[in-house]
Amino acid sequence: MQCVDCVNEGARSVRQARTSAGAVLSNGRPVITQVMIALNVLAYVVTVVQSGSPMNNQRSGLFTATSMIPELTANGEWWRVFTSGFMHFGLIHLALNMAALFVVGPVVEQELGKLRYSAVYLLSLLGGSAAAFYFGTVCQQLAGASGAVFGLMGALLIVFKRQKRDISTILVVVGINLVSNLFTNASLLGHLGGFVIGGLLTLAMVRAPRQNRNAYQIGAVVAAVLLLGGMFALRATELDTAAELVLEYARTCGPN
pTM above 0.70? Predict the structure, then answer.
């Protein structure tokens, strides 16, 4: 028999196995992935209730107020670059993104740990918004978790490459999804932006030296935030100097 304090003290003295990113290796539940899926589904349900349609839910007030419309975003409604990542155009759009998140998310979450995984997910989401906002036109309405999901695909690619595992399947899946953008209204820029940010951020995390690992990883996160913030600020300045043109685009194009 051993007292509880003795057992806990012994556990602290045993070196715990860690992943390449520094996370404690465990078989725990992918809590963050489950939370993100729940938030996306909840947001979809609210838009369906408001619009009265599971396929045309973009007509709901919540969707209109939270999806990313560049001219409104540039004029101060900056919450849209984040909230648009939880809106979806219909049930099929939601189902495809959540299926991918359900498959890819737990693997990446286990490798990175909850805190790092949350950073990669959210910055990939913002990376998708930033790419579409900076390089895209004002004649668009953007929504969906695709930027975050593609960011996790980029993260998984880096993780598998680091573990010397076969990455051909991931490349095929990413390639098919990118090509499909040419035949749908999905945002190719949003997907690419999320993929690049998720991949690069994960690469910085798994390649960080063991000494001062946390400092290097925090530095990578800060660098990503500054990069994305700069893209948003520069594009907003461009749109502000051409306000009349932006308003004209908004009047004539409307949301897609």
Answer: yes
